[in-house]
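Issue: ligand-bound run for iron/sulfur cluster - logging full I/O for the record.

Environment: standard queue, default settings, no custom constraints.

Inputs:
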Amino acid sequence: MSLLQVNNLVVEFPNRRGTLRALDGISFDIAPGEILGVVGESGAGKSLTGASIIGLLEPPGRVASGEIVLEGRPIHKLPPEQMRRVRGRQIGAIFQDPLTSLNPLYSVGRQLIETITTHLPVSAAEARERAIGLLRDTGIPAAEQRIDHYPHQFSGGMRQRVVIALALAAEPRLIVADEPTTALDVSIQAQVINLLEDLQAKMGLTYLFIAHDLSVVEHISNRVAVMYLGRVVEIAPSRELYTHPKHPYTEALLSAVPIPDPKAKKKRIVLTGDVPNPVNRPTGCHFHPRCPKATERCKVEEPVLKNVGTQHQAACHLND
Ligand code: SF4
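Outputs:
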């Protein structure tokens, strides 16, 4: 059984001029222990997908239809109090900016212990022991002393390790990681990715891993979903997607990833124009105004996501 299922999810933002449909019927599932990468340009709906799953959509954003099912239980309509319990106990979250997750006024130990005692039946002393263990597991040196330090006393990379410890504090099975390395120095990024990989293997975690950097996602993900304008346009096992993309948008994104071998040649596909405004979606295939392979059919007929290989789906007429 899937750990998480997202079925035909529509997220809308009503405003004075109408309704902005930010997620337009996305579906995917994640098996226990799997890492699903989600990529796309900004405005594709990646972060909104993560926010919907952890129940942190900014008002007036709302799930208009579809469902989010975690371990067989629909969670998209839970009242805020129940969703708070799911968040933390069943789903951990890691955001781009560690300061979003940490309270600057409290020591990291206090924040970890509070999360642990809120969700798990342990004493304060046991919670402190567990908090020190988590800081150790996430690579914080001298965890026994550092537990009493405040967020500003940690470097950016170390702070993100504390956030990872906080996300794991109540032993959730699913971690939603939204651009967890984007704000870090390049030299630190690989360390944090390796840490997330090690923790996943050690604790049997499941990740929804959101990133705009395709090379990061390739390295860590079992499968990758590519989003464009609030839709999943391609989803496939990582290796398959990177070697045999079946959607021109994926091809364009991949062509922009630098390759380590300077002698290897790769033609960069330059996309013209910006991501269109979701209020005013193009007709037919929403990607057609920017697609280098668009035909007349693409301007009028909308492609649907369909099977193009084993576990591989894409939404493009070229696969017909
Ligand atoms: Fe490009 Fe047409 Fe495929 Fe859309 S359906 S991605 S416009 S070729």
